[in-house]
Amino acid sequence: MAVPVTAMPIFGQNAAPPAAEKTYQSESTSSAAAPPLPETAPKKLEEPQGFGFHSPAIPSTIPDAVATTEQHYFNAERMETLRKLGDILLPPINGYPGSTQASSPEFIDFLISVSPTDRQKMYLDGLDRLNSEAHKQFRIPFSQVNAHQADALIRPWLRTWMVDHPPTEPFAHFINVAHEDIRTATMNSQLWSIAATSAGERAPGIGLYWSPIDPDIQMYV
Amino acid sequence: MPEENVDVLIVGSGHSGGMVAKILTEKGISCVMLNAGPIVDFQKDRELKPAHELPYRGFNMPGRLPHVFQANEFNANTWVDEKEVPYTFNQDQPYNWVRVRLFGGRSLFWARQSFRLSNYEFKAKDHDGFGTNWPITLSDLAPFYSRVEAIFQVSGHPDGLPQYPDGNFVIDDSPWSGSMQRFIAAGKKLNVPVCKARSAMGRDGLASSINLLLPDAFATGKLTAVPNVVVREITVDKNTGLANGANFVDRHSRREMSVKARVVVLAAGCLESTRLLLNSKLANSSGVLGHYLIDNIYGPGVVCSVPEARDGKAAPGLMGGDALIPRFRNVTTKAPNFIGGYALNVWSSDRAMPSRNFAEYGVELQKNMDSYYGSGFSMSMMGQVISRYENHVSIDKNVVDAWKIPVLHVDTKYGDNEFNMSRDAVDTGVAMAEAAGFEVLSKNYEPNPPGYSIHELGTCRMGDDPKTSVLNKWNQSHDIKNLFVVDGSSFVGTGWQNPTMTILSLSMRASEYMAEQMRQRNIG
C-alpha cells in the first residue's frame, strides 16, 4: 500500500494546494502538454484554529558581519587622522579588538555625518588641530607619528571628567569626547561582543531595549 | 453617546493621577482618566538586545532627544520627542524638559528615592528669611506620608533628624560595608551625618501608578481609562464659571472630542498641567500661574577609589552599599554664601569604573581600569533650587505641537545660590573622601541644566492668599472650586528631596478633601 505524501507547512503556507482531482491548466496553456501529476497528491491540511501561526526563527545577522561601511564624510586626511587616533587610543588588548578591527573610524564617520552641526564642527576642528599639531611639532601628518610622538600630542589634553560634563576647552573636549566615542563604537561592536563572550563575560553589551510603542501616525509634523 | 457627565475627569495617569483615581473610586466616585500616550506592555514592548544590533551601536540617533541626557539608544522610545511636542527657551538658558507620555507617566521610570519634606522646607521663609512658607506643615501631611509609604513599601532607617523626617518604613537594618563605615567616621569628624538611603521597593520590581495605585481603582469598576488622547483645553460653564470638562484630540486620528465632568483634576505633570491652564486661560487671577518654577540641582559630584579595594584585594564586606547625606548646611549653622540645603547620594561599587575617571589611554588605561576595578566610591548632589518669581513658563504663541496646541516657553536659570551650593557640595564630598583615605579621581562643580532632575515643580503654587497663589492648601483652584491640580506644580518650594512621596501624599490628601466636598455637594 502506498504511503501518502504529506505536504509540510513552510513559513506559514500551512494550507497545501487542493487535492488533485482535476488537471490544472490555465486557458492559455490548455493546448500545451499537461505536466505529469504527482503519484500521490498532497492532502489539504485542516484549517488552523484561531491565530495559531507562530513566526519561525529566521537566523540573521547585522550588516557589519558581511559588509563594510562606505566611508564618505571625512576627507582622506581627516580619516587617516581618525584611524590613527583610534589605533593609539584603543589598540587590540588581551584578545579584544581595537578601534580598527571594530571598524570604529568608519562607524564614527557615518555617525558624525548624520550628527548636528556643532558635533560635526567639533570633530572637523579637532582632527584638523591634531594634524596641524603633528606637522608643527614633528613635520609629519598625525597618521605617521610614532607612539612617543602621539603621546606628546595627546597626553597634555587628557582629563578626568564626569558624565555629561566633558572638558570645555575645545581641543581637550575633542580629545576626550573622541576617546569616549572610539571606545563606545568599539566596545559596542559585534567583534567585541564575540571576544567578550569568548573571555567568559556574561551578556556583554546587552541592554533592555524599548521598541517604539504605539507610535504616532504623523510623528514629527 | 455617553449617557451622563462623569463625576471626575482626571488628566494624567502618573503617580498623582493614579492616587486620585484610587482614593475617589474606592469612595464610590466614578472617574474617567485621560492620558496623552499609549499603554505600555512590559512583555511586548521591550527585549534584551546587544548594542551592536541597534542602528547606532548604542549612541542613540544623532540629534534625537538632545535635552534628555538620560536617553540612550535602548530607552529612546520611552521619552517624549521634542520634535513632536516642542518647547522653547532662550538659547543661553537651556532647559531639559524630560517627559514620558506612556500610561503611568514618569512613575514607570523614577529612581524611587523616597523622602519626606521637613519643616525646613515647609517653613522655609521662617528659617531662611527668603521665599514663602507653605500653607501646611509636616504634621498636616505626615499621616498621608505614612499611608503612601506603606503602599510604596519604602525601605529606610529612622535617624531622628528633623531635616530628614522619619517615616513608616520597611526597616533597613542591613550592615554598612567597610568603606561606608570609614566614610561615616569621616563625616563625624566634619559634623556631616551619613544615613541609610530611603527607597520605594514597590512590588515585582516596579513602584508605579500602574501597579500600586490603578489596579485598586480598576477593581472598583469605577475607573474608565482612555489612552492616546491629548487634552487641548479645560472647558468652563459660562453661567457658573465652573469647570465642566475638557476638549481633547485623538492622538492618532486628530479627531476633536469633548467630555463633560462635574469635577476636573489635572495630574499631567507640573509643566503640562500649567500649560493646559495657560492655554485654557483659567485659574490665574493671581497672575502667578507659570511662575516660581523650581526643580533640584543634579550633576555636581565626586568619584573616588578606595585604595584597599584595588587589584582585587578588597576584603569581604569592604565594598558595596549606598547611603545618603541629608541636608546639614543651614540647619543649626549658617553657610556663608547660600541659603537652603543639599544632600549627597553616596554609593560604593564593586564593579568596573568608567574610563573617563582616568587620564590615560590604550594599554595603560586598561591597566588602570583593571587595577581600580571594584574600588569605586561616588557621590552625587541633590540640591535645593530657590523659588523666584522670574523663573517662569509662558505660552509661545508662535509654536504648536503635533496637535496644533501652543507650546510652552521656559524662561529659567540657576543663580548664585545654586552655584555656591554646588561648589560647597563638591568640596564637602572631596573633604570627606580624603578624610576617609579615599583617592579622588574626578569631580564636577557644574550643575546640569535646569529640568534635568525631572523634578519640575511650583508653577501652580498653593497658598492661603488667592492674590499670591493659584491653589489653596487642598490643591483646589482659588478661582474655580471644582478644579484641582494635584501634581508637583502645587509646591511652594522644594528642598533637596525627590518630590515623589510629597506629590503622592498631597494628592491623597486633596482627593479625600475632594471626595468630602463632593459628598457635601459643595462642588460637583
Account of the 3D structure:
Chain A has a domain at 68-198. In chain A, 37% of the residues lie in helices and 2% in strands. Chain A has helices at residues 76-89, 104-113, 117-138, 147-154, 170-187, 190-198; one strand spanning 206-210. In chain A, helix 3 (117-138) packs across helix 4 (147-154). The longest helix of chain A is centred in the middle third of the chain and has 22 residues, at 117-138. The relative contact order of chain A is 0.11. The model of chain A is unreliable at 1-31 (pLDDT under 50). In chain B, the strands form four sheets. In chain B, strands 1, 2, 8, 9, 10, 11 and 20 form a seven-stranded mixed β-sheet that branches. In chain B, strands 12, 13, 14, 15, 16 and 19 form a six-stranded antiparallel β-sheet that branches. In chain B, helix 5 crosses helix 10. In chain B, 55% of the residues are buried.
Oligomer: heterodimer
What percentage of the residues of chain A does DSSP assign to strands (E)? under 5%
CATH architecture of chain B: 3-Layer(bba) Sandwich
Number of strands of chain B: 20
Q: Percent helix among the residues of chain A?
A: 25-40%
β-sheet strand percentage of chain B: 15-25%
Spans of chain B of at least 5 consecutive residues whose pLDDT stays below 50 are: none
Question: In DSSP terms, counting alpha (H) and pi (I) runs of 4 or more, how many helices of chain B?
Answer: 11
The parts of chain A where pLDDT drops under 50 for at least 5 residues are 1-31
